[in-house]
Amino acid sequence: MIREIVSDAEGRMKKSIESLTEQFKKIRTGRATPAILDAVQVSYYGSMVPVQQVANITVEDARTLMINPWEKKMVPEIEKAIMKSDLGLNPATSGDVIRVPMPALTEETRKGYIRQARLEAENARVAIRNIRRDANGDFKDLLKEKEITEDENRRGEDQIQKITDKYVGEVDALLAQKETDLMEI
């Protein structure tokens, strides 16, 4: 039973880390990376799909993304979707290729992105701590029903705390890396 609670908690904490990584991909650094467009949805035959499903996205140079739509009629749709997204990007179309230059980050935008990254990291830490609280609550319930001993309860809580510390450490490391990326000129 304890092992099940611990492995369930660890699996949920892993998902929190994956979610944080996805959120960090959306925070733009000065470099061009296709992951920036992950959240951009485009209308394709009446349904909304991610840009990656209707075009090939490549990094042309350090500050430019190149989007090659698979169908010529998708060019204006993709352009519109990028303009509407709150990423602050201005695509430029030449024929059936869309180039998306990454604007240089000002000191103010860098600080804003760092604030956003710190907020996302804090949300991940809170999620991980909530998972710890839930697991410890499960241990307490088992203890009340006399299904585990106090020693087993303490051991389970110690395991959960170690796992919590590990994943909070991962959050901190991811945040430090993102801050480094954002401060790079």
UniProtKB/TrEMBL annotation:
Q: Give the main localization category.
A: cytoplasm
* Subcellular location per the Swiss-Prot or TrEMBL entry: Cytoplasm
| UniProt keyword Protein biosynthesis, yes or no | yes
Q: Which residues cross the membrane?
A: none
**A GO CC term assigned to this protein in UniProt:** cytosol
| An example Gene Ontology molecular-function term | ribosomal large subunit binding
Q: A biological process (GO) annotation for this entry?
A: cytoplasmic translational termination
Note the superkingdom of the native organism: Bacteria
- InterPro entries in the record: Ribosome_recyc_fac (IPR002661), Ribosome_recyc_fac_dom (IPR023584), RRF_sf (IPR036191)
Locate the Ribosome recycling factor domain: which residues?
21-183
Keywords assigned:
Coiled coil, Cytoplasm, Protein biosynthesis
Q: Which residues form a coiled coil?
A: 114-166
**Task of the protein:** Responsible for the release of ribosomes from messenger RNA at the termination of protein biosynthesis. May increase the efficiency of translation by recycling ribosomes from one round of translation to another.
**Similarity comment:** Belongs to the RRF family.
NCBIfam families linked: frr
Q: What is this protein called?
A: Ribosome-recycling factor
